[in-house]
UniProtKB/TrEMBL annotation:
It is found in: Membrane. PANTHER family: MAJOR FACILITATOR SUPERFAMILY (MFS) PROFILE DOMAIN-CONTAINING PROTEIN-RELATED, PERMEASE-RELATED. The lineage of its organism: Eukaryota, Fungi, Dikarya, Ascomycota, Pezizomycotina. Signal peptide: none annotated. This is Major facilitator superfamily (MFS) profile domain-containing protein. Residues 48-465 form the Major facilitator superfamily (MFS) profile domain.
Amino acid sequence: MDNDSDKGAYGANQVERIEKAQLSIPDEEDEFTEREARKIVHKIDRRLLVTIGFMYCVSLIDRTNISAAAIAGLAKDLVLTGNRYSIVTLAFFPTYIVFQPTSTVLVRKIGPRIHIAVITVFWGVAMLGMGFTKTFGQLTALRVVIGLLEAGFFPSAVYLLSTWYTRYELGRRYGLFYLIGSVTSAFSGILAFGIIHLEGAGGLRGWRWIFIIEGIVTILLGFVGYWLLVDFPESNRKTWKFLSMEERAWVIRRVNSDRGDVEAPRFRLSEYLRAGLDWKLWAYGLIFFGSTTMSYALAFFLPIILNDNLHYDVGTSQALVAPPYAFAGIFMYAVGWLGDRYRMRGPIIVINMVVALIGLPILGWHPDPKIRYLGSFLLVAGANSNVPATLAYQATNIRGQWKRAIGSAIMVGFGGIGGIAGSLVFRSQDNPEYRPGLWACIAVSLLNIILVGICSISFYFDNKKADRGEKELEADDEGFQPGFRYTY
């Protein structure tokens, strides 16, 4: 009886301590008031979140702007007949997938400022080169190179963000990060529509100017990112200071209080790979696969579907891509706030998938083109909101820096596989209805709901065992902290 009381008191104290850290309320040893603490968090948001968000924006634009170029003359000029367009779009992903695991190790070794900024500049150069391609082979080769370089960005960015925030701040932060990137990049259709009016300037086709101008912007943002990006909170590397030593110490204390894994132990390949044996990491990856299959399919093919299926002209198809993504941004932030506020992760994924499952049949089968276009709002909102929701689901339920690193690599690797699937689900021979692609999106939505159910059942029984003192969760990981519980 006394033992049970002690455990209950310990659990209550643990929850209270974690809640104080998550709400930015200082303990007695902290020198900041609640208002000052919130200002520090907002300072991190402005410096880190906004910088990474806009770099992600150009990353998304550069990997998906080929759809806008395709309907502006690229497909005709480079003879992308048959399956050639699908081959070009998926050529990005093999190197993108293969080089994911090394990126989170490299970012720890050389630091995020150098790592992320350098690869951004280099893929901008490759994007610039796409504006001067003459053949299908040249275009495909450059897409392979861009995949290799971008492999280092997304997992490193996700990993970096997870080191600066507590678990129940990550839902909104990942939502804002993805919102800045995906919603801003959605307006690339309007940007591309404006750029193609440079048709003939310098003796170049309008679609070439899409790659040239956007490549130059990426290069410039890479240089700017070197000055604005920050290192890991505990790093001793020389970096541009935006927090005082006292503020950084406060950040480290609150993250340690929340999950106890600020300091990364020395890298050992065997331990890094052993962390990948946890089946839950692969389940998170499969959920991410389902989400990115839909998000990439929409990024690559929504302008084409609007053009072919709903019979809008080229300019209108490019412009009409933006409103669904703008709506998705509002929806994305709302469900991110909901997940953080009520400390839930799995139900948010289920909500997103249900919204997508409502939008899919409307887009695919409703007889009125205007109503079908409205269906794209629900589909884009559900599919894209599930990307940050899955990132938060994983990050909340992982402990330890190297497990977090390989978890990010596995997840984003599966995201790359989703990109390959998204490149193939809407086939030219299915024009104009694209029914097989719609059924594929329905299938992965249902798969995500099933996987969340399996994980939730496992979390429930593991948490119960931990409550009874039969086991400590994540005890085999270097980030083990007594009192940790999985979040449904």
